[in-house]
Amino acid sequence: MPRLILLRHGQSQWNLENRFTGWVDVDLTAEGEAQARRGGELIAEAGFTPDVIFTSVLTRAKRTGALAMDSAGIKDTPVVEDWRLNERHYGGLTGLNKAETAAKHGEDQVRIWRRSYDVPPPPLAPGGEFDFASDPRYAGQEIPDTESLKITLERVLPYWNSAIAPRLKAGEDVLIAAHGNSLRAIVKHLFAVPDDRIVGVEIPTGNPLDITLDADLTPTAARYLDEARASDLPPLPGA
Asked: Which residues cross the membrane (predicted)?
């Protein structure tokens, strides 16, 4: 039975500043680094040694995976980076303070942008500070200017099917170090979470979600390794 661990990156600087981050490449805080290292300790205690690590192209996810593996004493695991595991693109909200945005647009509107499944924020205007069109990491790609969770799933799922699922079906154990919304998209797919419930699923920072899969990649068991910081999990399919 293959094992999959989903690891949301530790606290980032913009998490701390309560800003919409999305694709902006901010680093971890000291607390975020500690969360990543603690995640690695828990991974070692659980006896998990990944055959491959998948991560986004963003520093906070890559460093979380690296710090976790260093803390776990696991070396030389192949790492595969891909932008399709990036955080959700927050469009025109990128860089804004969440509290100030709520004061300007109203809490109800911001809640819809943040938490609805299929309503994206306003698009990011081209040519601004956070325009990623010229970023070499996305060269040749048709990148979005805003995303809902639904749109995020639509870019994550093809990558899951083409790159990650085959490794699991081959019996390899996989670690994905990524972001709250890209991991939420994977959880929605694996656990068949309804649209109206997935927006309430929270994945804690730095807390490994350990999932055992059957041959069809249907979860048969799942738990957070740090039980004190665990969130409620969706029910297992068929439970």
From this structure: none
The annotation status of 160 as a binding-site residue, yes or no, is no
Fill in the amino acid letter for 79: V
pLDDT in tens, 7-46: 999 999 999 999 999 999 999 999 999 999 999 999 999 9
Q: Which string of b and e fits 72-105 if b means at least 16 CB within 10 Å?
A: bebeeeebebbbbbbbbbbbbbbbbeeeebbeeb
Nearest to 209 by CA among 69, 40, 46, 6: 6
Which pTM value belongs to this model?
0.96
- The residues assigned a catalytic role are 9, 87
The answer on whether 207 is annotated among ligand-binding residues is no
Degrees to nearest 5, angle at CA 14 with 10 and 17: 115
Residue 74: both structure tokens together: 């696991």
**Beta-sheet pairing, 52-55 with 174-178:** parallel
Q: Is 229 annotated as a binding residue?
A: no
Instruction: With beta carbons less than 8 A apart as the criterion, state whether 81 and 49 touch.
Output: no
Strand 209-213 to 219-224 pairing = antiparallel
Rounded Cα distance, 151 and 144, in Å: 9
Per-residue pLDDT reduced to its tens digit, 128-172: 999 999 999 999 999 999 999 999 999 999 999 999 999 999 999
